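Q: I'm writing up a methods section and want to include an example of the input and output format. Could you take the sequence below and give the corresponding predicted structure tokens, formatted cleanly so I can copy it straight into the document?
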Amino acid sequence: MSRRGRGGKNRNQSGSAGQNGAGQNGAGQNGRQPKRQHGAQQSSNDKRAHQQGQPQVDRPANKNAQFQSALIPRKTVSRPSAETASATKPQNRRYAVVFFDTLSQAKSDLPRLREVSSECDQLNIVVRAEATMDDPDLTAAGKLFCGAAWALIHDRRKEDGWYDSPHE
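A: Here is the clean output for your methods example:
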């Protein structure tokens, strides 16, 4: 099976034009067009785009010009000092955790969750079963975590005494 190009000739076969080195339209030995210079091709493309009413695209003369802007240092953004950052959020936050087996159990205990939530800065409501963490009633009372992995994380925090002391 052979691949055929223009003129129905095999790739390895050469016609009479290919043997004498001068093909059609100045093609070389293998029937390929000689390489054009990039500038000449670009200007012909620009002429064609202008004739067809298409907007011209400004291309940099140097191909690497678009990457040089990455080497130019940019302005640094000043960050607030530690004093101003501490003024916006409390130094030590008090956390509390409440565990439930199912989401419906957590919803039924909503009044108690609101009470516990008022006594701390953040209430973590952990549901051991897989469920949605977008429940609007429960997320209003505290931060909702559902699933076995989250339950394991908060169980370990409770065992380590993490919820007993305030944290940043």
